[in-house]
Amino acid sequence: MNIPLTQRLAVWSARRPWVVVGAWALTLVAGLAITGALLASAISTEIKFVSNPDSKTGTALIDDTSLAGDNFTDTVTVSNPELTVDDPEFQQRVESLTSEIRSVEAVDAATNFYETDNQSFVSDSRNTTIIPMAIPIDLKDEVTETLAIVEEASNENGFTLTHSGQATLDHDFNEQSEKDLQRGESIGIGVALLILLLVFGAVVAGVLPIILAVISIIIGLGIVSLLGQLAEFSFFVVNLMTMMGLAVGIDYSLFIVSRFREEREAGKDKLAAIEAAGGTANKAVLFSGITVVVSLAGLLLVPNTIFISLGAGAIIVVIITILQAQTLLPAVLSILGDGINRLKVPFVSTQFGADAEVGFFSGVARRVQAHPVVSLVVTVLILLAAAAPLLTINTGFSGVSTLPDGFASKEGFQVLAEEFDAGQSSPAQVVIEGDPTTPEATAAVEQLRRAIADDDGFGPPTALAVSDDRTIGFVQAPLAFDPQTQDAYDAVGRLRDEAIPAAFTGTQVDVFVTGQTAEDVDFIEQLGAFTVPVIALVLVLSVILLTLAFRSIVIAIKSIFVTSLSVLAAYGIVVLVWQHGVGNEIFGFQQVEKIEVWIPLFLFALLFGLSMDYQVFLVSRIQERYSQTGDNDEAVRWGVGTTARLITGAAAIMVAVFGGFALGELVALSQMGFGLAIAIALDALIIRTILVPAAMTLLGDWNWYLPRWLEWLPDLKIEGEPLGKPQEVGPK
Asked: How many CB atoms lie within 10 A of CB 348?
């Protein structure tokens, strides 16, 4: 019989433990050094397109010309309730502040009302004016200097200052992301350790998975730091890799260590126990890890940096965790031996196979098997009811208004919304490629400016700015709404679909609309175009992989069905809590109008992979028993009984890790963490406990059916002895 690769790797590592540990230690040191030196330059708060929609083309045209300094990204507001902009003291304050801002290296340009006589720079009350600033993207981190200037000058002589815009928002998102990361790590690791102690009943066994998970995270971040020098990663990648590293790292260690201890309890010596775990649990980890990677690979199809970088980051940390589970963990078990059981926790059992027939979950399985139709129908109806709010989902971007109070970007946005057009800091930008000074182009620009002025969605447009080489023209139109609302999206749509074609048809120039709102519109359209291909790829690859793993087309299709139900139910609960505000205060979440637009597709890929983890571990143990007894119903009960404690513990750990991040202040990360936590809880408590046993009981021997035309597939059994030739029909 062929010995599985995972078994050979485990034995090889167990016989050379210090060589393996030393190699991983060197890799860890390298990961720490690289992360510390390069991570900051590898991540960005921007969402960049890999393809070339209008907004990307327009931005590139501006950045490549002398107009880059006219591309104002941030705004300082200056207010004084006792003075107006017509008072000399007000003018002196604004001009002095403008000069100070211009002295900052990160600022390409800054202007004010007194230099331009632009009335849109002044509020209706004339007590407030703005100082627009141009801060290049590659220097956005230096916005701290202008923030310091504004903070120091505010509240002097009755003047109040605020600072807002894209660079400010990026700075605030980064700052809050770091706070959320620290909170998520502390909560997740703390609760995970407590659960591990309860599951293992020993301190050494409980601490080991956390140590291994942290090692995977650090090495993964080192790889991302290197790759980020070639192409920037989304700053969310740090939070996601930490979540994923803790979740899968702890889970995979949990399954392997428990199998090792189970084999030791059965009387095998240390090396034999490692070998047995290598051929069973390690192999299950390999397959479950591959399912996660396969699901995440679908995200790489979407041509923008948030999906590619998050997908790549998660894949990297999962692959490292798989490699660690196959080599480092067997080596550590070889060194520790029964020392893995040191420092036992009082009153907590360390036995893992004892509840296979008499435990709580075995009892639940018996009751489910006594009434499989009722159990199946009721469970499906409950999950569909939970999924129902998904029909009302409203997606978009959370934006600056969802940041916690006290951040500069939010305070500045609120002043702009009250005193000016809410979109003043993020105007729509019309870029004209070609000579904008020809008579026909000039006439078209004026027609466009009149159309913008007549549209209630915009404030007064700026005059045409022309690059030094007269190849690019540039007009800005402040939006009358929060730039990340549907009203703003509709306004940009009218600009693109109506105003620009009406003005420029027949001219010899190309026109593009860019700016934050235009980028959002392009992102949403791009996401819509790739949603179906991503879902289709994940489903097809999952069916193929599961069919290979279990040599059963029925198991593969059933797994897709039940996993899809849990994902849809999680979606519905996320919409119910966040968008409709049902129970949001219980969790401390703010009610918002939108679910972050990228969350549903991202959660689908992530949840599909993670949910398949439990499917692989549960069904592999059922298949192991079935191969020994040929009794499907008894195999289902045995599989549920032997895996329940582990799956429940693993799920509780994942819920703790994801829940810790859900308690953060950034809406996007909080929604993601909450969705993951809810889906994993549903998966462990309902799907694996009730729905899977009910379905497998009803299917009987059909569970293990493989059509004749697929008999050529390799036998990659995860657990137990090979079953021999697949059955030609379902039931005997």
From this structure: 13
Tokens read off for 565: 């139900």
For all residues of the chain together, what is the average pLDDT? 83
CA distance 212 to 209: 5
HSE value, Cβ hemisphere, 13 Å, CA-based, for 680: 28
Contact between 509 and 436 (Cβ < 8 Å): yes
How far from chain centre, in Å, is Cα 309?
10
**Cα separations (Å) of 123 from 35, 157, 414, 419, 528?**
46, 20, 14, 5, 39
Q: Which of 14-23, 36-45, 686-695 has the lowest mean pLDDT?
A: 36-45
3-state secondary structure 172-230: HHHHHHHHHHHHHHHHHHHHHHHHHHHHHCEHHHHHHHHHHHHHHHHHHHHHHHHHCCC
Structure confidence at residue 90 (pLDDT): 92
Neighbours of 526 (CB within 10 A): 18
Question: What gap in Å lies between CA 374 and CA 378, rounded to an integer?
Answer: 6
- Counting every residue, how long is the chain? 732
pTM over 0.90: no
User: 154 in the Ramachandran plot: left (φ > 0), alpha (ψ -120 to 50) or beta?
Assistant: beta
Q: In this structure, is the dihedral angle defined by the CA atoms of residues 395, 397, 400 and 403, taken in order, positive or negative?
A: positive
Q: Tell me: pLDDT of 451 over 90.
A: yes
The pLDDT, as a whole number, for residue 334 is: 93
Contacts 24+ apart (CB under 8 A), 111-116: 113/85
Binned at pLDDT 50, 70 and 90, residue 716 comes out as low
Q: Degrees (nearest 5) of the Cα angle 280, 282, 288?
A: 100
* Two structure tokens written together for 446: 């004026």
What is the biggest distance separating any 2 CA atoms in the chain, rounded to whole angstroms? 96
Query: Scanning the structure block, which residue is given the tokens 């569909």?
Result: 384
pLDDT over 70 percentage in the chain? 92
Residues near 617 by beta carbon (within 8 Å), at least 6 away in sequence: 255, 284, 288, 643, 646, 647
Q: Is the dihedral of CA 85, 91, 97, 99 positive or negative?
A: positive
Q: What is the DSSP code string of 546-595?
A: HHHHHS-HHHHHHHHHHHHHHHHHHHHHHIIIIIS-SSHHHHTPPP-S-E
Nearest residue to 288 (alpha-carbon basis) of 611, 607, 551, 569: 611
Amino acid letter at 380? Answer: V
pLDDT score, position 422: 54
Most confident listed range (245-254, 269-278, 590-599): 269-278
